[in-house]
Design brief:
The chain has helices at residues 22-32, 48-56, 71-75, 83-88, 108-118, 135-146, 159-172, 229-236, 244-259, 266-272, 280-283; strands at residues 7-13, 36-42, 61-66, 80-81, 93-96, 102-105, 127-131, 151-155, 178-180, 190-193, 217-220, 241-242. With 285 residues, it is α/β, with parallel strands linked by helices. It has a 6-stranded mixed sheet with strand order 2-1-3-5-6-4. The radius of gyration is 18 Å and the shape is globular.
């Protein structure tokens, strides 16, 4: 129950129609008797610079979950950025500390690679293609490099963004094999859609699924629906895959710890979650 002592965690992005986090965090808080609430807040990019500082002035503001299109813009608004934020160039979690300063971290990449491991994929030595060098793509690439991927191919329609990400990875992981590539998925052990493609009906696919081998693992970050058109095509080819909410359930324990709310296992979170399931037997979310 929300009362005068409730701590607020803002879930900031635009649009908010695909947000799943409130359907997981809030039932968990209720189960554990934690007086906090995650509130979706639809903030357009042009308003973000004014909205975030205003929110941070609320005395019951604990912090924020940050998603598209604000992950990159948030970095410049932090008082302290974690190493992962510096590598990824983006931030998806910020904490208001007792002195009012804002500390930021990035959990997308960790959530993604933990989800891969839970599905049985071994990152070390693997040939990986990541399509998309925005906030989530940067985080995934940074985590793949940290876990010793054998090769990381990186594609983005904005070549400058891809080059910038590759340079940051090389600076922090001098031994990483990372290169700019096309979006052709042939020859990779892992291919990842780290773009928004799939959120809207009629979106083109981020890469040609006919070029994906049945032995390739396919990763998706879009959460608006569990089985996106890309994953449907990958499943039809016999590929193993993870859905966007797999990443979400793996990163939430890190978020909870970051905000000082304890921790939870993905299984515990799934048990209380109110996120609709399209294909639980195969998608695992």
């Amino acid at each position: 129950m929300i009362d005068g002592n409730t701590l607020v965690v803002a879930h900031i992005g635009y649009p908010t129609s695909s947000f799943k986090a409130p359907l997981i965090y809030n039932p968990w808080f209720e189960r554990k008797g934690i007086n906090a609430v995650v509130v979706p807040m639809a903030v357009k990019a042009e308003d973000y610079a004014a909205v975030l500082p205003a929110l941070a002035r609320l005395t019951n503001f604990r912090g924020a979950l940050v998603t598209m299109p604000h992950k990159v813009a948030t970095v410049a608004m932090l008082d302290e950025a974690s190493t992962m934020v510096q590598i990824a160039g983006s931030c998806n979690a910020l904490l208001k500390r007792p002195d009012g300063s804002l500390a930021g971290d990035m959990f997308d990449g960790v959530g993604f690679t933990r989800a891969l491991a839970r599905k049985g994929f071994r990152t070390r030595g693997a040939r990986c293609l990541v399509v998309g060098a925005g906030g989530v793509g940067c985080a995934i690439v940074a985590s793949l490099a940290a876990e010793g991927a054998g090769l990381i191919g990186l594609f983005d329609v904005d070549r400058d963004a891809a080059e910038g990400l590759a340079a940051r990875v090389r600076a922090h992981h001098p031994g990483a094999a990372i290169r700019l590539a096309s979006n052709d998925p042939a020859g990779y052990d892992l291919v990842v859609n780290a773009t928004p493609l799939g959120m809207k009906a009629g979106d083109p696919l981020p890469f040609d699924p006919a070029r994906v081998a049945p032995t390739t693992f396919v990763g998706e970050v879009v959460m608006k629906q569990e089985i996106t058109p890309l994953l449907a095509a990958a499943r039809a080819r016999g590929c193993r895959f993870l859905v966007g909410t797999d990443m979400l359930y793996e990163m939430i324990p890190a978020y909870l710890e970051f905000f000082g709310f304890g921790t939870a296992s993905p299984e515990e979170l799934r048990a209380v979650s109110r996120v609709p399931h399209e294909a639980p037997a195969e998608a695992g979310a």
